[in-house]
């Protein structure tokens, strides 16, 4: 007779034999920054998550650090009048992103700062690249992305996180960083980023939804598995320090494939729509938020993610501490 239930008999034995554990060190907390002062506004479609003006973000960073979350990923909401088709605000040394990096890093040098590198928040078309006749230009976009990464590096970022899915951008960014003396700045590449419906809430947060068409000429087809391995391999070869799969839950198989393929840390982004679905069901009393969020998050790690970008990071760590 085999008795597998013996290992599930008590909390103590379950904990003892748990194959996967979460801790504060696993998480990257996304941060949304808006222009202005004293702003802390809830993002309706990302319940419990806020956009902050820079003066209000410091308290948030401090509280993340206090709970042991030492990495964050910065996004900014660009004002409409600064948006264009060339990404000029994206490379402005005095832009909101560059100022945010400088100010946060100066106050909290111990916080590992990552910055989103993509044109969509700055694009009058809401696309991740320069648009010409309804097409997204690759190489012209890559040039701007490299410039953008350089300006973040100059502001003091630890790692840049290109989320655009243009071909060749990792190599171009690495070369530019080297050329301008930023050899210590890393790249966390969104390597296998799928054209997903689950980015909807995020796009409302930054007002960055595409003005025409969708992103399927650059983001990946959800039907494809081997294509993800190819994207990741190219990024590693071009110099990515960390590779990311996104979204997470519908792509757990991809996370595992990548984990088994490469020898760099594997990251996964539990994206806005995935988070919002759990929140929304919980608000209706249909699901228990705390345990559902924990289950989703542990699944991402079990699938093979070494690190997880999550809107639930602080909540999860709070739950872990109360166990
Ligand atoms: C944009 C970007 C997106 C996300 C991160 N960077 C959205 C998109 O590609 O349209 C999504 C994150 C989320 O949904 O939580 N380059």
Question: Your description of this structure?
Answer:
This protein has 323 residues and is α/β, with parallel strands linked by helices. The protein has a single domain (26-322), classed as Aldolase class I (TIM Barrel), CATH 3.20.20. It has helices at 11-16, 54-66, 96-107, 138-155, 169-179, 200-206, 226-238, 252-259, 272-283, 289-303, 313-322, and strands spanning 27-34, 40-42, 50-53, 71-77, 112-117, 130-132, 135-137, 159-162, 186-193, 242-246, 266-270, 307-310. An eight-stranded parallel barrel has the order 1-4-5-8-9-10-11-12, surrounded by eight helices. It has a two-stranded antiparallel sheet with strand order 6-7. The mean pLDDT is 97. Bound molecules: ligand PBG. Residues 116, 118, 120, 128, 163-164, 199, 202-203, 215, 271-272 line the site of ligand PBG.
Largest sheet: 8 strands, parallel, barrel
> Radius of gyration over alpha carbons?
20 Å
CATH architecture designation: Alpha-Beta Barrel
Low-confidence stretches: none
pLDDT average, as an integer?
Answer: 97
Examine the coordinates and then state which fold CATH places here, giving the name of the CATH topology. TIM Barrel
Strand content: 15-25%
Bound molecules: ligand PBG
Please write the CATH class name.
Answer: Alpha Beta
Question: What descriptors fit this protein?
Answer:
binds ligand PBG; 323 residues; two-stranded antiparallel sheet; TIM Barrel; eight-stranded parallel beta barrel; alpha/beta
């Amino acid at each position: 007779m085999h008795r597998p239930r013996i290992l599930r008999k008590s909390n103590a034995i379950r904990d003892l034999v748990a194959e996967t554990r979460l801790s504060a060190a696993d998480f990257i907390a996304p941060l949304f920054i808006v222009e202005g002062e004293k702003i802390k506004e809830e993002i309706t479609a990302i319940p419990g998550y806020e956009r902050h003006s820079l003066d209000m973000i410091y308290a948030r960073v401090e509280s993340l650090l206090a709970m042991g979350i030492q990495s964050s990923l910065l996004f900014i909401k660009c004002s409409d009048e600064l948006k264009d088709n060339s990404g000029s605000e994206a490379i402005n040394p005095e832009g909101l992103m560059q100022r945010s990096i400088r100010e946060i890093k100066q106050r909290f040098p111990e916080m590992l700062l990552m910055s989103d590198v993509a044109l969509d928040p700055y694009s009058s078309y809401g696309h991740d690249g320069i648009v010409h006749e309804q097409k997204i230009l690759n190489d012209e976009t890559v040039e701007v992305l490299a410039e953008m990464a350089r300006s973040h590096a100059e502001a003091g970022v630890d790692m840049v996180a290109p989320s655009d899915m243009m071909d060749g951008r990792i190599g171009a960014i690495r070369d530019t960083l080297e050329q301008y003396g930023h050899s210590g700045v890393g790249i966390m590449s969104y390597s296998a980023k799928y054209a997903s419906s689950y980015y909807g809430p995020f796009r409302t947060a930054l007002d960055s939804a595409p003005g025409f068409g969708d992103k399927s000429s650059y983001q990946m087809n959800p039907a494809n598995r081997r294509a993800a391995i190819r994207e990741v391999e190219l990024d590693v070869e071009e110099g990515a320090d960390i590779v990311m799969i996104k979204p997470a839950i519908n792509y757990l198989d991809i996370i595992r494939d990548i984990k088994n393929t490469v020898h760099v840390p594997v990251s996964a982004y539990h994206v806005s729509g995935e988070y919002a679905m759990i929140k929304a069901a919980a608000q209706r009393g249909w699901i228990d938020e705390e345990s559902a969020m924990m289950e989703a998050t542990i699944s991402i790690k079990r699938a093979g993610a070494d690190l997880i970008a999550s809107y639930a990071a602080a909540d999860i760590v709070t739950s872990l501490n109360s166990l």
